[in-house]
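User: I've been going back and forth on whether these two constructs are worth ordering. Before I decide, could you fold them both?

Assistant: Sure. I'll take them in the order you sent them. The first construct and its structure tokens:
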Amino acid sequence: GGQPRNVQPFSDEDASIETMSHCSGFSDPASFTEDGPEVDEEATQEDLEYKLKGFIDLTLDKSAKTRQAALESLKSAFSSKILYEFIMERRMTLTDSIERCIKKGKSDEQCAAAGLACLLCVQMGSGIESEEIFKTLGPVLKKIVCDGTASIQARQACATCLGICCFIVTDDITELYSTMECLENIFTKAYQRDRDTSGVSSAHNAVLHVSALLAWTLLLTICPMNEVKKKIEMHLHKLPSLLSCDDLNMRIAAGETLALLFELARETDADFFYEDMDLLTEKLRALATDGNKHRAKVDKRKQRSVFRDVLRAVEERDFPTEMVKFGPERMYIDCWVKKQTYEMFKEILGSGMQYHLQSNDFLRNVFELGPPVMLDAATLKTMKISRFERHLYNSAAFKARTKARSKCRDKRADVGEFF
């Protein structure tokens, strides 16, 4: 059983090779070199699958470091490639390995296993196979999330995994409500901070509360409207207390959740009225213009940027539309529901988010992008400008910037003449 140890970790070089024999048109344009040699896709696919089989075997190794390295390599592969057929044949083996690592592993191994569980469901999409995976892993994830003796990092990773996997696979409304209740039991403990003088609710738990709140918010976006109304009534008057939290991420998560709740409330009732609106807008405005010297400049800049948008959402019902580019396509994020969903999946997929937006049927369905755009290698190659053209463009842009700056400097030099 010592042979698999010689398998090298999944690298960025592996990720850059286009190996999808069933969807080769989904390559990133940058992956094609100018006049480069043709790649044998079948051979590279076989090589990749051989490596992945070795990693799956290593998830059962006696060494915790070996198991964790194998999990991380599988995560890297799953986030950068569509491997539906390969995973379909080995989904139960992968599920068993993940379950074992979450149950028996230490903190880092549990985090890696939870991350791999997310990616497994993202790859499989919302089918019967994913439901089987969640039926096996759901109870294990809930147990870790609620286990006060487990590490905060492991509980945080399992809370995120629980929310994303439930979002992907759950058609059973009872299971959805049960998962939301589990997450509620975690983040509602943050409400007690102002009343807790013993210091039990320390900043140490803030990362767990943030993950639970964001995972719960994601699930709220797929709830029936009558349940959404109940949750809004339950939490809308309590969430503002988290805006005074010492942890920056907790303040931001609470602010963005408030914006989303107001958006959902106004969708269900155009005349929605919030009693403490003046007090809430005063708090949001203070955070949007915060100048406390004891806070880091980077944190203040990030906080002010987020809360300017939150304040506009609460006061003016406005959302600053963002555009996401991936390949030849564009996606517009024009509401808080879409923004929160995008941010959650981006956290899991990382740099592979753009690739999955192009290729993953489930994600394209979530963001209403339609079927994948099929582009062959020749089309993608023509879309890429040559190095010489890129050099000319950069030179012209540099000259234009220089001229514009020179004009601005001239205006500053002459400014005294106008007074």
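The second construct, handled the same way:
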Amino acid sequence: VYRGSVKDFPGFDANQDAEALYNAMKGFGSDKEAILDLITSRSNKQRVEICQAYKSSYGKDLIADLKYELTGKFERLIVSLMRPPAYSDAKEIKDAIAGIGTDEKCLIEILASRTNQEIHNLVAAYKDAYERDLEADIVGDTSGHFKKMLVVLLQSPWLDRAPACSTLTWALSPSSSHKDLLEAGELKWGTDEAQFIYILGRRSKQHLRLVFDEYLKISGKPIERSIRGELSGDFEKLMLAVVKCVRSTAEYFAERLYKAMKGLGTRDNTLIRIMVSRSEIDMLDIREVFRTKYEKSLYNMIKVSAGG
């Protein structure tokens, strides 16, 4: 069942839409309402076709023209919508590691939540767009166990998104895995971070849910509490994000959206990235979880927080 909030526009005509966008940007200024209405009512696949039709008709790059005509948060939103998902993720990661400092929260969000195929597409898109190796760039910009776990996630090993095979070394029994986690953390003086990385990075979601259940039965505490007690810093945040996505990706993103809008100021880049990236995947689920968990409408909270 499709759980996205954006669908294909019926009666779609790429050439007609390309002409409408050209006219909206022609002359002095641009018709931002027309641009917004058209682009947000098309699916990503249709937007890509509009880009191709625009170049065929006018010999110009539509995204470049949109960047020239628009500014600020509105430009970031529209341009993000125009990129294929993998290229949008690639741009977000490139921005996260560019210049001085690193946006670790962005790296965590993308690499902890994407499927095997999405990770594969991201790596290829990054190479195509920037002629650079994504893993090498991440390794060069991060450190320690945080870096090691990001590299593991880049290998896209989660078994529930690959063919099942009982002979694979990570298809171990849940009881074995939860004991390994206990011995790596709660029962050990210090912490065996490598064991946490191996289990949380290389077991299937289905397997890990069983591991978490067994862990709770044996230790009397949820795995999240043990991670908070045993790990620290960005590594802790990354491992918690992995656990949350294993339990419920929709709940993870609902929480990310809520935190992006609560308190003083709105983390606009986070808000834009999530709304764009999940609009054709599970936005309906995220909306439901958001309303249940926070007793607020995601629509209304965005209207208030984003000045709409």
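Notes on the second construct follow. The chain has four domains: 14-82, 85-150, 174-230+240-247, 249-305. The two ends are 30 Å apart (CA to CA).
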